[in-house]
Structures are given as structure tokens and as C-alpha cells.
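WARN retry 2 of 3 for item q-0093 after timeout on previous attempt; input resubmitted unchanged.
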Amino acid sequence: MGTEDFEEIVGSEIIQDNFLFRNLNFAEAQNLAKICHQVGFHQGEVVIEEDSLGQALYLVEDGEVKVVKGEGGDAREITRLGPGQLFGEMSLIEDELTSASVIATRESMLLVIHRNEFEEMLAGNSSLALKVYKSFCKTLSERLRKTTQELGKLRDSAGRAAPPKPAKPGRKPRSR
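OK item q-0093 returned
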């Protein structure tokens, strides 16, 4: 068997390198890569519009995108994502509107995994489905933990005083 028998499918390496799919073996990453579509976006082109129904996960293969919350003068850039990073993953598991817009900041090549193809693939492979959903759960848990920590820091930085300590039983508070 020669090396030509191990032809790599476009996207399988970036899939395996991504935190969400890191626990997939080579064959599973290859199967997932088979349903990836390479799509190019020009600078300034909207990839996902805020409050639209999400239908796909996107992996940045090349280029950069920015995540923006709000419109016009109220728009705030949340973050920028580059090669190897993903977005839109929640649209693979829920029917909710997107929480932000994503816009290409320069010429970008994205790998797109559409929800319907993703669901079909997982329906036919329960072992793969278990690995993927376990990874989703772990990712959500990590994000929730991080958000909780950030909210705690925000609360502390807002200058909120700690709640007063209760008086010891049997003692009256001193008056001045």
C-alpha cells in the first residue's frame, strides 16, 4: 500500500487540529471533511447576519473574520477569528437565531459544515455522534465557567460592596 492510498481530504487536518473535533481519529476526521465545503469570502462580506437562523458551522481555513454585535453606530466588535478557529457551531445543535454578525476582514477561505449533512452523518455513526456531542458539552461547560468568572470580575469591578456580615447572635448593634 503506497502513500497515495492515504490521500487526505481537504479540511481533515484543520478539523483534527480544532478543539471541537480534536478527539476524532483520522478516519472520523476524514468523514467529517467529506461534508465540508470550501467557500471564499471577500473583505467586508457578511458571512453570518445577526438574528438570522444559523444553518452551519464555519472553520477559518485562511484569512480572518470579525464577530460584531449590533448594527450601524451601535455595532461593537466582539472578537476576531483566524485560521483554525471556528464559529456557528451552536447552529448545528439548536434552532435559534444567531447572536452576532460575522464579517470577513480580508479575503478569507472558510470550511462550511451544513447542519443537515452533519445530522445525516451523525445519524449513521453513533460512535462519532457520541464523540462530537461529548466535545460540544465540554466546550459549553468551559464557556459557561469562563462566563461565570467574567461576570464575577465585572461585579467586583463595578464596585459593589460585599454584603454586610450578619451580627453575631445575642449582640445588639452599636449605635453612635
